Amino acid sequence: MANFETPALREYPIIPLIHAGTMAHSKPYVAKPEHQKPLGFPGTLVDNWESVAVKKLGELVDESRALRVFLDTCVKCGSCTDKCHYYLGTSDPKNMPVARQDLLRSVYRRYYTLSGKLFPKLVGARDMTKDVLDEWYSYFHQCSQCRRCSVFCPYGIDTAEVSMAARDIMDAVGLGQKYSNEIIAKVHSIGNNLGLPEPALRNTLDGLEEDVKDETGVDVKFPLDEKGAEVLLITPSADFFAEPHIDGLIGYAKVFHQAGIRWTMSSHASEAANFSMFIGNHENMHKVAIRIREAALDLGVKRIVVGECGHAWRVAYAFWNTLIGPFDFLDRNYPIPQHICEFTYDLIQRGALTLDKSANDDKIVTYHDSCNVARATRMGSMPGGQFVIPRAVIKAVVNKFHDMEPESIHENTFCCGGGGGLLTDDLMEIRVKGAQPRMQALKHVVDDHGVNYLAAICAICKTQFAKVLPYYQYPMDMIGSVHGLVSKAIQLGTKE
Amino acid sequence: MSALTITYAVLFYVATAVLVGGVAYKVYVYASTPAPLKIPTTPAPTTRLGVMGRMLREVTVFESLFKSNKWIWLFGILFHFALLLVLLQHLRYFTQPVWGWVVLEQPFGIYAGFIMVVGLLGLWARRFLVDRVRYISSLSDHLMLALLVAIAFSGLAMKFVVHTDIISLKQFFLGLLAFQLQPLPADPILLVHLALVATLMIVFPMSKLLHAPGVFFSPTRNQVDNPREHRHVAGWSASINNPGGR
To answer: Which residue segments constitute the domains of chain A, with CATH numbers given?
Structure first.
């Protein structure tokens, strides 16, 4: 299967001893000029890249309080050293959050602090050399920006911010990552990550209408570009494409159908994902996000609902109002934007859905908190609603549910191993190894409770798990959408 | 006035200026650097008051550190609170008459010196014993601990081994505060103690000791979780101008 060993799952999780350099060879494919240019980046490494990189670093620090404070305040206490799933899965010390930050902090100290200018050796400051750049390229693409380290840092230092800055600098000197940048270029030119043009999208949705009609006998619509709809659904394009994502989309459609709410998707904004966050570039992040404002205005909708996607929910929840607001043209009686789980949860509370839990009696379910949802957003009005609401939706549609151990759920959740722009075959080794802590926790509920269904609300998590579960001897179809469960339980024809 | 007295007087004026000026400058820089996006680590408080509570817990009981690692938390909290008590006890060398509560705090402040050493040695031991922490420790991390341990030991030595002329010392510092030089006792342990303290003051604003003011400016901890309710803009995000709408 691969030229690396899948980490063992143990009786109890252990913190490995460090083994320097075990993942130094891991590097994603470098972006070609045609992936770089549409994003406004140089096509190849620029001649004076050292000075460009150092200058860019200074600019980023000047425009981000987070970055500045995070680079200054670390005391090397070691609190984060055993918190990263990539460290736990690889034992490479440069995958400890503090060591990853230090790859960039050492350069910051050399050029932007007095102590680093005067006594570089003493404070661990380094010149910006090709070796340093290569190391950045390797290890800043072994960070899924999951923020687990930031939960445990006494100063709230978030390695995600550091890795975003490092990637932004690398893009600025012409050393981009092919996977993310190719996808962002596709969104700019076609409108979604998959590169699915409008006719193909319409075709897919028509096909889904037929499938659901065949299966249920009910005319559930999958509307596209319908002006005057109340709700615009923005969902990751993975939902249009394959299992298990598409079951989620069918679930949303059934919920809208039974609630009797007019909704639409948009061919102009046919993508919730915004990989520009992964590469830390706010110009591209704005450019990708603004399509959603344009679509909402054009279609005249009153509400925006976001489908199951982790980082997209972060961009939507935490950044949209800043990037593409103000939303004074939308209905203020609803959260703007609203997560599909919030939407379904509200309908369940109001008794607007007829649900038969026994339809899912073949499944014993556990729930994976996706990192961006868990540690960067909220659902509902209470802090922690992002943990409660998806579970409440699941428990409303299944009889058998078991949570994984507390150290691996809620804000302690372990990343699936494929987030932050690492969901590419050229990073398979780090993806499999980084999944180890999550698989370890999963093993316990499988062994103790016979769990056979891992529910998630993130397109990246779903794709990643489908790929890595078999490495750990679990079936790939064990992973599924939360709204895939809703889809099975909902009794069409009973309310409308 | 002796050269020694003048040297130490100048040293402490410089050290104080560097400490106060340096930290004030850093605080100004942190405060004036924009935070363009909302990035609180969630679950986070949804009100300003809630955030103040979160911050208070971070700086008093080290909430995140407690969640993370009980050993670092234990040694860290021992050191920091002992240091606080010791610093408060030292107020008696700068005030005349000595404030009543400082007098009451005196015995705690003295024995806190030992607790401080325990905390520091615990933290230092981790830098040797835990392979992950050994890996991330640079020379400056060891030197910082060495500096603090040396300050603590020299201070304790003057209390429990060889007494210094504390009356004259107090005259010296009261003199500094009034800009009137008074002779400094030429006691070797005292001179070492004072030189190390001045070094610490000078190093403070250009080292990781900035974690003290820095933590208050950490956006993942000090931001209110309300991006849907309030449109947050700052820095580059303040210049966004989106067409359409009402």
So the answer is: 33-176 (1.10.1060), 185-402+451-489 (no CATH)
